Give the backbone structure.
Amino acid sequence: MCFIVHPKHPIAKIAKKDITCYKVLNDNMCPRHYSVYPPYVFGKINPSIRLETHSYLPGVIELGYHSFSIQRPARRICKAFWRDNPLLVRCIIPKGELYYFNPDDREYVSTNIIIKEEVK
């Protein structure tokens, strides 16, 4: 899936402070939602990813770290899609990283993310 740029928030912002967010992974720390990147490591910054718009869908960002601003949509993803050990994790988008936010979907896409802890 891809991130849809909100028409009222069309420009990437720079995080002025660490931003708390939530992501769905599987229990092997292999991303299972919105991600094709290598396994994450708890507490460490991941490789930066350049945010790129979709080649033939304007206003859609394909590459980047996708996450949610609140737990509810992430928990729905856990219940709806992965019955094989989904893992909800609290993360941060580090200060200084680029990000977009879609308030309708409560979703972020960012150039980096740090996995902090599992949310029970």
Observations:
- Residues 29-36 have pLDDT under 50 and may be disordered.
